[in-house]
Amino acid sequence: MTEHPPRRLPNVLITGTPGTGKTTHANQLFEALQATQSEDDEVKWEHINVGDEFVKNRGCHSGFNEEWQSWDVDEDKLLDELELVQVPGGKILDWHTCDIFPERWIDLVVVLRCDHALLWSRLEKRAYPLAKIQENNTAEIMEVVLMDARESYAEEIVVELKSESPEEVEENVARIVAWVEAWRKDHS
User: Fold this and answer.
1) Which amino acids are annotated as binding site, given as ranges?
2) What are phi and psi for residue 86, nearest 5 degrees?
């Protein structure tokens, strides 16, 4: 493993069951953090939608799975592609899986949670197949992503946030921005 200089900005992982609002949070967080940057900053914030964009665009998959309407991710390729991208920091990683990323990459893990009835409704609106809705709903009820995060990362960097309304999204983004500001002061 190559030693890299310390990150100038933290890497934030926003994770949760599909439908909990990861991309909405990541987009709003990206906009809020971008607004705090100056043109002189060497490292710029970047939102990486791992599943929908990065995996597809970087070829980190073995094809599209019609049954599940998603890419079959090649985790080794994905980690190889992300290895250098994450080094300078300033990455907002947005994905439903959290436990594959090395702990050294991540400074904050935000696990979004949502009431299972609301989640079901959100996934129906996306026209997910019934089996996929059921699997994701069960995963949310059983706290699968939260448990994965707690097993994979230090307790102090994992935060669980409720994501059921636009007001909660706004509050969550403000909370993460405050955390980033504190991180930057601690690491300057």
Assistant:
1) 19, 21-24, 126
2) -80, -15
List, as residue ranges, the binding site for ATP.
Answer: 19, 21-24, 126
Task: Write out the CATH class of domain 12-183.
Answer: alpha beta
Residue 2 has a pLDDT of 56
Poorest-pLDDT segment among 40-44, 87-91, 118-122: 40-44
Q: Which helix (H) or strand (E) holds 15?
A: strand 12-16
Average pLDDT, the chain: 93
Mean pLDDT of 32-52: 88
Amino acid symbol at 164: E
Q: Domain extents for the chain?
A: 12-183
Q: pTM, whole model, 2 decimals?
A: 0.92
β partners of residue 110: 14, 159
137, 18 Cβ separation under 8 angstroms: no
Six-digit token string for 90: 């300033």
The gap between the terminal CA atoms of the chain, to the nearest Å, is 24
Greatest Cα pair distance in the chain: 49
What is the 3-class SS of 120-177, one letter each residue? HHHHHHCCCCHHHHHHHHHHHHCCHHHHHHHHHCCHHHEEEEECCCHHHHHHHHHHHH
Q: How would you class 150 by CB atoms within 10 Å of its CB: exposed for 0-12, middle for 13-18, buried for 19 or more? A: middle
